[in-house]
Amino acid sequence: MKPSTDNRPPRGALAVIAVGLIATLAAALLSTDESGGSTVKVEWATRAALPDSKPIEIPGSGSMRLGDAGLRVTDDNINGERVFRVAAVLTIDAGAAVGQARVRCRTRGDGAELARTVDSRGAFPRSTGEYSLTKQEVPESVGVKFHSSGAEYASLEMGDAFETFTDLRGVVVSWEPHRTVSQAWQWGLPRGRPQQPVALGLASFWKTTKAPSASVSCTLENAVGAATVRTAGSLG
Length: 236
Fold this sequence. Notes:
This protein is mainly beta. It has one helix at about 10-30; strands at about 30, 40, 45-50, 55, 65-75, 80-90, 100-110, 115, 125, 140-150, 150-155, 170-175, 180-190, 200-210, 215-220, 225-235. The radius of gyration is 24 Å and the shape is globular.
């Protein structure tokens, strides 16, 4: 009897190889974070701009306004939930009377719950302690707890909101106590009048089963008095 010349691998081996390829592909689509939960990239499906606030005079001199504000929203997941991001930039005039001023900014995701990241709130910037905020970089993406495509966390774009949280050295920021219906920051500005316009960027992530709606307000208080700017809007 002549020896067989069929060098093809057995069918069982082919099946094992196929299963391995499928597993490799699945691992590429779903990554695992440090907490053990899987993460999948989720694109923003819809966006809407929020109106710029009117410029408001700062007691002592100068003015400020809220601008570049907007909503970014995902599609619904299997539970009818969606995530939306609220972002805005507070701009203060060069030369304004803001030396050692305090700024309180608050965002409300109307009818929504503040989302969670792997280890904290879905709010940026993070508290800095005594360190200058210029040392904190804006992340390109953020992992938010949101069930999608079988994963526990959704990786959502953040880097398109703004380039930096601030361009003024010496700015520090802290979070106010946690609340599920709002997020507030307390900013501390350094001594002196700024030689260039000052920008303070903020963003937060929210989960909701309703039409996304949000409001943003910032109040600046210095030795002379206080001033407030606001914006709000919805999608749907």
